[in-house]
Specification:
heterodimer; A: alpha+beta; three-stranded antiparallel sheet; two-stranded antiparallel ribbon; 5 helices; 52% helix; B: alpha+beta
């Protein structure tokens, strides 16, 4: 269970596999970042609807490193701390585009099923 | 070969860098929460709750580099099998080559191990010699010839005879075929050994055929058949359905004088295991290997001449000329063949 909706009233729900990786890649496409900054970025961009179980970011980053979709290097942060900053690679960018387009198709398919009125209208 | 490195525990420096990264994350979260007005303790607690189980997440980060690689090895193995199935001729050639090479290596190692790595493990092994024939690597003699050579030679302190054989062993559970050495009563005394447990059999135990139904276990045989039970001495076992009394256990390093052969037991040649008829045939040349300890000051050449003289005396019976052929502890390649053929 990596990401949960933050609404206390709704039951928590797992995201589909690869969702966290996709959001990490998208965040890194905008700007290289270290782990903590990535978590904050994802939470802010989702307007806190999604909350990453923060630690689960790190196994996901290792998976991306292993697949060579991101690379990492140690450097100094703005607060002068030694941090490990992640960058997206060229194959990471290609992978992200494929994932987004496949996600959009899936999302569209689900929407069509859930809103049959819209589907017959189109 | 990268995957080999990945299967082993990650070097400390890499592991530490992953942990550092996660701890830094916690620190930053704690600072932020303190900035929002929480007490340090409460900030710590909330940061840890939000982060999740640190140890488990470290483990999962490490596993990322391990298990998928094992899966990919499995995929490689399946791919290799599919390829082999497509070309059975190649598969057969590869398997046959491997089998022959492994077999040959095993034989070479067995000989090397016996000759070089583990020479005969008895006191003053350099004076131990085996009697062979001048024109043959086969050194075996009939039992009656052995008795003549033993009694008439002047070169050996003592001369023993031994022989490899097999018998059905019943210790009361799981009867099985056992490899054993049949030896003359003086065998252990010629070699100068002391028992690990109990006693050995001696020349004085032999009173003609069927007189000494005793068993000495090799150390390995004792461990294998009796799980190292120290109370084994005095127990009776069946060998080819005849009762034999266990009188002792040989020391750990001693496995007989045959190269690349390890017996489970030793029995006296006059124990009745061998039929008298076979034992008393002078023409039965495959009966015994002769092993003796040269007297101090006697050279192998002198012993050769001595044995040749007895050989001449025996010629009437008839028997090939005898001479000392090789010793056990060096230069023994000629001895390896019969021992290997007779051994396991």
């Amino acid at each position: 269970m990596q990401i949960k909706p933050t609404d206390e009233n709704s039951s928590s729900r797992d995201l589909f596999p690869g969702a966290l990786e996709m959001m990490i890649l998208e965040s890194l496409r905008r700007q290289p970042a270290h782990g903590y900054a990535l978590v904050q970025h994802i939470q802010q961009r989702s307007r806190n609807l999604l909350q990453v179980e923060e630690g689960s970011l790190y196994p996901a980053l290792q998976r991306l490193l292993k697949a060579k979709l991101v690379k990492a290097e140690w450097g100094l942060s703005a607060t002068n701390r030694r941090v490990r900053t992640y960058h997206i690679t060229a194959s990471g960018l290609r992978h992200l585009e494929q994932e987004i387009s496949s996600f959009e198709r899936m999302f569209e398919g689900i929407s069509l099923v859930l809103n049959p009125g819209n589907s017959s209208a189109s | 070969m990268n995957w080999i490195r990945q299967q082993f525990p990650t070097p400390q420096v890499v592991r530490r860098s992953r942990s550092d990264e996660m701890r830094l994350h916690l620190e930053e979260r704690v600072e932020q929460l303190i900035g929002e007005g929480l007490s340090p303790q409460e900030a710590q607690r909330q940061a840890r709750v939000a982060f999740g189980n640190l140890a488990m997440l470290e483990e999962r980060s490490r596993e990322v580099w391990q298990w998928p690689t094992l899966e990919s090895i499995w995929a490689d193995v399946r791919f290799a099998f599919r390829q082999l199935r497509k070309s059975p001729g190649f598969a057969f050639a590869a398997v046959a080559t491997l089998a022959l090479a492994i077999g040959a290596n095993t034989v070479v190692f067995a000989v090397l191990n016996a000759l070089v790595l583990r020479p005969l493990n008895v006191p003053a092994a350099k004076s131990i010699y085996i009697v062979g024939h001048a024109k043959s690597i086969w050194g075996y003699e009939s039992y009656p010839n052995y008795l003549d050579l033993r009694d008439r030679n002047r070169s050996f302190d003592a001369l023993a005879a031994d022989n490899i054989t097999q018998a059905g062993l019943d210790t009361g559970k799981n009867p099985s075929q056992a490899f054993l050495i049949e030896a003359s009563g003086n065998y252990f005394d010629v070699l100068g050994l002391q028992p690990y447990l109990g006693r050995f059999f001696h020349a004085a135990d032999e009173h003609g055929p069927n007189s000494a139904p005793y068993v000495v276990l090799s150390y390995a045989g004792w461990r294998e058949h009796f799980e190292g039970d120290r109370g084994v001495v005095g127990r009776t076992v069946l060998l080819n359905k005849h009762p034999f009394v266990i009188i002792g256990v040989a020391p750990p390093g001693f496995v007989g004088t045959f190269i690349a052969f390890s017996p489970e037991l030793f029995v006296p040649v006059n124990s009745g295991l061998e039929s008298d008829g076979l034992l008393n045939q002078r023409a039965n040349r495959w009966m015994s290997e002769l092993v003796g300890r040269l007297k101090p000051g006697v050279t192998p050449a002198q012993a050769d001449a001595d044995l040749d003289a007895i050989g001449s005396w025996l010629t009437a019976r008839p028997i090939p000329t005898l001479r000392i052929q090789t010793c056990l502890h060096s230069n023994c390649s000629a001895r390896a063949l019969p021992a290997l053929l007779a051994g396991r």
